[in-house]
Specification:
single chain; 74% helix; mainly alpha; 22 helices; 461 residues; Amino acid/polyamine transporter I
Length: 461
């Protein structure tokens, strides 16, 4: 496939992320603060059967991981969701992927930042939640200006610390579970269970993070699939165990009214010092999620700048650390604005789920076309699904996503309206930018179809 010149504004990223760093980034992003924030509210929706909700939610997550295993093996490049959507879909498909990823960041980061501030408030009573959340976002945005190596080092350290806190919580909680709490696992019926599954799916929405930094992963075609497999096993074990401890030690209605059910549960069988340690773990969990989301979303914005879907300023990277700093600055600003709006956390969570599902479906459909449109690229992948497994992955992802969106929209119609407004804003931006570059004689179909030298070099590593 013909290439075009490397973007002169961009310093090509180095492959510095190994298997441990990739796994830490996934685990840190996927688990994050949600395991500390969601078990209580979702227990109030589902009942004591909360662990079963996590088990069901892993089904759509598994389909997402299957497509990401193939994507990471076929196209291990920076912003690979965007690259596959544009090169094997259309310019609009690529823009939609990035717009949805930006939406995920703007919707999810406030939840995590507020979660951080809320747990910090249990240690330092009286702090302002909103101001603290803003400080956290700005600080971690600044960290991302120092490059992927600094980010993954901090990410690995924070992930290790909050995993230790979760292990302490689980180890102390499992022996204290009261089996009598599970006599009526689903007091709100099947509708409560399904709504709970959709809500906890928010806890599985972070697997796409590895596709966005694929161009910076060592031996990416093999490292990414391994990191995904290790991560989903670890994550599922943690989710089910934490859910079982929370609903096995607390009354489900009591848990449902608590914003810090994990800490409340721990206080029943641990001294205050250990409960404080678990709360610190929640702080690190929130920070890892914010950190990893920054790391990934700004690299898709970088691709939009390179392809002129956004102004070329967005394609700039710092000389010293190869960081796409315009994306970092813009996302930081948008999240600060979102925090100042003080919107509902549950609504943010549902919007995040809508956005990530649409992103995954668009990218997975484009990936399915690679085998036909570029058989050489497909043949170079060390992990190649058969056509049957590829089709199974695509259909499974589309069906489970459609079910989640339809049921959630039926249950929360106002949230669905907000999501369609966000889509409309994105397509207005697309239409305006398309008209501007068309007047300059630039065809987005041309700029987004070709593999430029940067992509070609990343594929050759």
């Amino acid at each position: 496939m013909p290439g075009r010149e490397t973007n002169p504004l961009r310093t090509r990223p180095k492959r510095r992320v190994n298997l441990i760093g990739a796994t830490s980034t996934i685990v840190g992003f996927v688990i994050g603060a949600s395991i500390f924030i969601l078990p209580g509210p979702v227990a109030g929706i589902v009942g004591p059967g909360l662990p079963f909700a996590y088990l069901l939610a892993v089904i759509p997550a598994a389909f997402a991981c299957l497509y990401l295993v193939q994507l990471g093996s076929v196209l291990p490049v920076t912003g690979s969701n965007y690259v596959v959507a544009t090169r094997f879909g259309s310019p609009l498909a690529g823009f939609s992927v990035v717009w949805m990823f930006i939406a995920c960041a703007v919707f999810a980061l406030p939840v995590m930042a507020i979660g951080f501030a809320s747990y910090l408030e249990t240690l330092l009573p009286g702090i302002d939640i909103t101001i603290t959340a803003i400080i956290v976002v700005v600080a971690l945005g600044a960290l991302n200006l120092f490059g992927i190596k600094a980010v993954t080092l901090v990410q690995s350290a924070m992930t290790g610390l909050f995993i230790v806190a979760l292990i302490v919580f689980i180890a102390g909680g499992l022996p204290n579970i009261d089996p009598g709490n599970f006599t009526n696992p689903f007091p709100n019926g099947i509708s409560g269970l399904l709504l709970g599954v959709i809500t906890v799916y928010f806890s599985f929405t972070g697997f796409t993070v590895i596709a966005e930094i694929a161009g910076e992963v060592k031996n990416a075609r093999r490292t990414i699939p391994r990191a995904l497999i290790i991560s989903i096993v670890l994550i599922l074990l943690v989710y089910v165990a934490v859910g079982a401890v929370v609903t096995g030690t607390l009354d489900w209605q009591e848990a449902g009214s608590s914003p810090a059910a994990v800490a409340d549960s721990a206080s029943l069988y641990y001294p205050p010092q250990v409960v404080a340690l678990i709360s610190v773990g929640a702080l690190f969990a929130s920070a890892t999620t914010i950190n990893a989301l920054f790391t990934s979303v700004v690299r898709d914005i970088l691709r939009l700048g390179e392809d002129q879907v956004l102004p070329r300023w967005f394609a700039r990277t710092s000389r010293r650390h190869s960081v796409p700093y315009p994306g970092v600055l813009v996302i930081t600003g948008l999240v600060v604005i979102a925090l100042l709006l003080n919107l509902d956390i549950e609504q943010y969570s549902m919007l995040t789920v809508f956005a990530i599902l649409l992103l995954q479906c668009i990218a997975a459909f484009a990936l399915f076309r690679v085998r036909k449109l570029n058989p050489e690229l497909w043949a170079a992948s060390p992990i190649r699904f058969g056509r049957g497994l590829s089709l199974f992955t695509l259909v499974g992802l589309l069906v489970t996503s459609a079910f989640i969106v339809v049921f959630a929209a039926y249950s929360e119609p106002a949230t669905a309206v907000v999501f369609f407004i966000v889509l409309f804003i994105g397509y207005v931006i697309w239409a305006v930018r398309s008209a501007i570059v068309r007047r300059r004689g630039v065809s987005l179909a041309e700029t987004t179809r070709q593999f430029d030298a940067t992509i070609t070099e990343e594929l050759g590593d």
